Structures are given as structure tokens and as C-alpha cells.
Protein 1
Amino acid sequence: MWNRHQNGEVWYTSPLLDSAGVRHLFATRIGGVSEGCFGGWNFAAGVGNVTDSEQNVLANYEIAADKFGLHASDVCRSYQAHTDFVMTVDDTHRGVGTVLPKFPFGVDGLVSATENLLLSVRSADCVPILLYDPVQKVCSAVHAGWRGTVGGIAANAVLEMQKHGCKAADILAAIGPCIGVCCYEVGTEVYDAFLQVDACFASCFVPHGDRYLLDLTRANTLFLTRAGVAEHHIDACGMCTRCDETEWFSHRRMGANRGTMSAFITV
Ligand SMILES: [Zn+2]
């Protein structure tokens, strides 16, 4: 069981990352200032025909950063476009996507060795993954939908961390709340895309009529272990975002008019 925290807002932390002493959180939708389908702790204005205000989103970032003793201007916010691209960010990226303009290109994973630079990736069924190397003190935050997952973005984060001297065997990974295998029905084109990477990914699919149920947590776990991360260094929370409307926004349950959660980590 992951650690559940409540102080105005509700958030979870991974016991594995907690034991390494790295500050991080996976936000639920509970708390914050947003209302309606964005109620209440929402981190994106949205792309449906109803949108939240940028002012509310910024206020929600301020609340999240405050849990770390930081400000929204210390956040670096990925610009998610279902890429498998991971890049290193530093002090020059402080406030990108919150108080400064967003990245002008898709970047779904961030790596940082910069103290008190707070990485943010957002999701509402997709997989948020936080990584940390307690030896080199390097962290990473990744957004992985099925496209990013099959593109190997989790492994790309490990590769980017290795540029900072990290050893894969030292890296810890927390796989956050996402749509579970109970709820994530996909077509044969998704199955085929994974099988083209490696036959081992067949174990992530459960046949479901003429379609499949996909276990994104297992798929990302396989990409991480193939990249050299130890199985006992991977902590998956196993909570399904579609199953629990009290705690999570879910694209499959709510459609485009909905809020978005964020995961945060900093060294
Ligand atoms: Zn479910």
C-alpha cells in the first residue's frame, strides 16, 4: 500500500521513494481551487469544450509547490505530446509551463540534478512514473500513455539519467495511478505495436472479445527491467484511475471535459 497524505489536499507517495528520502508526490483530484469537472486539484486548463482558467491552474500549482516549500515559479512542466522524448532540465527551465511559456516542442519526460527544481508530469489515465537515483541524486518524471510506453519512454528516462553518471542498478522507480488492466480496452493495432518491439509484451495483454485489455503498469515495468532497473526497485501503486471517481480524474470515464492530475519530484 502506498502512503496516503491529507492536508487540505490528498496525495500519495511511494514507500520505496520515501525510504530513499526523495521529495515527491502523486496528486489526487481532492483539494485545490478548481470547480465542476475540474474539481478540485487540477493541473491543466483542458482541451474539451469546457475549460478551467489558467489562474486556477496556477493556483493549484502554487498549492502543490508549497507542499515542498517551493513556488509555482520553481516548477518545470513537461509539454506532453505522446512522444518518447526525455530531456535534462536545469535552472534555466525554472517556471517553464507555469509562470513562463511552455516548451515549444513535445517533451514527455524530464530529468533533473538541480536542487529544488520541481518536475511536473500530468495524467488522467496515462501513467505517471517518477525515478530517482539516491547515489547520484538525479530524478526524473515521465508521462507514458500507450504510445509513449511502446516508444520506450521509461527506458529513455533511464538512458538520460545515465548521462549524469547514474547506474541503472541504483535507480528506483515509482509507477503511479493510471488506468488499470480492469478498464483499459485497446484494439489489435496497439497489441501489434507492442509485439513489434518484443514478443515478451504479449504478457501485458488479456484477450477481450476481438480486442484486448492492456496492463500499462506491467508494460512500463518490463521496459524498466529491460533497461537494467532491478525488479525490487520498481514500486507500482496498482490504483486504477477509471475505477475511483472520488480520487482520480479519468479520460476514459469523463471524456475531454475533465481535470488532470500531476506527479511531482525534486532533488
Ligand atoms: Zn479499473
Note: The domain at 3-180+232-266 is CATH 3.60.140.10 (CNF1/YfiH-like putative cysteine hydrolases).
Protein 2
Amino acid sequence: MEVILSVPFSYDAGGEVRRLLEDFRDMVNFCISFALERRITSYARLRKGVYGEWKKRWDYSTHFCHSACKIALAILKSWRRRIRRGEAKSEKPVARKLFMQLDPQLYRFYGGRIRISVKPRKFLFIDLKYGEYQRRFIDAWREGSLRTGEITMNKTKIIVPFKKEVDLSNPRDWIAIDINESNITAVSSNPHILRVDNNLRTIHTAYFNIIRRIQRLKRHKPKTAQKLLKKYSGRRKRRVMDECHKISKKIVEFAKKHNMGIIMEDLKGVRKNIHYGRMLNRRLHSWNFRKLQSYIEYKAKLNSLPVEYVNPKNTSSLCPTCGGRLAPKGHRLLKCRCGYEDDRDVTACLNLLRMRGAPLPPKALNEAKAERERIVIKSQLSDNGYLPSR
Ligand SMILES: [Zn+2]
């Protein structure tokens, strides 16, 4: 199967790139008008119809015409859908943002550089800025294990999709991962228990408080508040993403070392269907567990490890060994009449293993000599120095 990872690179759009982006936007708007006036919805007809006039107006490579037609039709399609739902006005849609999609025939990727074919024998070279994260993709691309697909660029970023063909292995074992707001636990049948201590909760609490303080400032200094809000929301997002990358990396490294497939909870709809208290709700919504799952999934697949999702229903209320109802015992412990006893997170993982049909560890894990490992992800929060005082 093919795994695609979209990797953003920053760049400085010089005058020429800027002009190209503006011209491309004009081309898209031209195609939109053309298609609307003649009620064209098919790509082939629009391409054929528009070409003569397009050629008169612009002297770019023909591929830009294809790309503009494609984007114009996509904009029209979503505009019609919004009209059907009553979400858009009937005035014709206009492309306002500067952005462009280029298929592999229009650009060439050189690792740290991109060459765009503007017209026959005329090229634009763009230097990409990249950090450690992007560099790993470039290295893998140089070795030939990744291919690049259609790139998207706007005035600050170029997004390069890297494609990899992977054969998912037949794993020796399975490891189930329970993600909850304070900790992440993984249990496998061989048996291993892995705890990943992380800072997601601390990050969210810290930024929740920061943002609340900024909102109080809004009444007196709306402009300052808006500026601060933008700054700190962006910073929170980057911290959370960074943390999710670290966590998923540790988990996948562990699974890879022991050749294990990954089982996770199918959390689609969980946030919609359950009415939590207000505080918990806020944390769940800001917490991005789907993002963490998707990071684990693509990192696993890049390492040829299969990933499966199972329904998380009853994973923390039924006994994983006999199926009986569990009773709470103290703070986070659960016990069963059959003698099973372990904490909530381990229990949830064992139930995920059971639902996948993976073998369970021989005995209750607190009796068996499960190999318990703890991974601590360190990071520090240092935002408080710059805050508006209360
Ligand atoms: Zn039991």
C-alpha cells in the first residue's frame, strides 16, 4: 500500500514567484467565469474550451492551464454544494487566496530546492527552508525510498507530499494503545507494558490559562489581545504537535523493536456522542487525540507495521479475562470476581487486544512478570515570563 505524508517547507516568495501566484489566481478566476457562463462541469470540456483564449492571455507552460481548470472546477463544485445547503450566496465564486498546485511535470524537486517550469526553457528556482523534521524526508528521498507528488504552494509555504510504497508485515505480536488525557499506556500479549509519560496535559492547562488571561484583556486593549491570542494559539498548536510527534515516535520505535502490529481505539464519534462535564469537555476538545493516533498510524505504516482500530465500547468496564463486570478498587484500580486486578489503562488495553482476537498475556499482568517500561518525554514550558499581568 501507499503511504503519503505531506511535509510543509517555508520559503521566501520573491517578486517572480509572487507574480506567478497572482497570475495563477487570475487564471483560476478566468476559468471559473468561463465555466459558469457556458455551464461547463467537465474537465475535458473546460480545458478544450478555455485553451485558445488562455493562450492569448498568458504565455506560461500549458500545464498551468490544466491545473487552473482543475482548481476552478473544484471551487465551483464546492460552491454548488454550499448553495444547495443554503450556506453560500449565488454570486459567482472568486479565488482570493494566493495558492497553486503543481503536478510533477511542472516542477522538479532537488531536496533543498525546487525548480518550477514557468514556460519552455524558463525556470524559477526556490530555496526551501527546512529543519530536522523535513531533512529526514529529503534524505529518504535522496536514497530513493520516497517519491514526491503534486505540490501545493502559497505565499509562505510549499507543501510537498512524499509517497512511499510499503508492504505491511505480518507481525509477530500485537500491542494495544490506550490514549487518555493524562497518560498513554500500551500493552502487548508477550507481555510488555509501556507507559509514556508526556506533557500534553500540562501544555493544555498552561495555554488554557494563558488564553483566558488574554481574553480578560480584550475589553481594555482589544488590539493587543488579538495579537497575543494569535501568538499564543499558534505556539500552543506547535507545542502539541511537537509533543504528539515525540510520543508517537517512542511508541512506534517500541513496536518496531518487538515487531508488533498496533491496535487503537476507534474514537470517531466519541467526542460527539458523550456529554462530558464542562471541564473534561474542554480538555477533550483541545486535546487532539485523533492527531496523536494519526501520527502513530503513519509512523507505524512507514515502518511496515499494520494498524487496526477496534470499537472501544466497554473497554474499561468489563473484565478482559472472563468478561464479567469490573468493580472499582481504590483510585485507578479495577478488580473482578475471577481474581483479575489491574489499573484502568492496562485493563482498557487488554480489552482492546481481546476484541482484536489477539492472545492475552497468560495471567493477570500484575502476577505475570510483565516487562514494565516507562518512557518519559521531557520538555519545559517557558511561556510565563511574557504574559500580561493580571
Ligand atoms: Zn474476570
Note: Residues 173-376 form one domain.
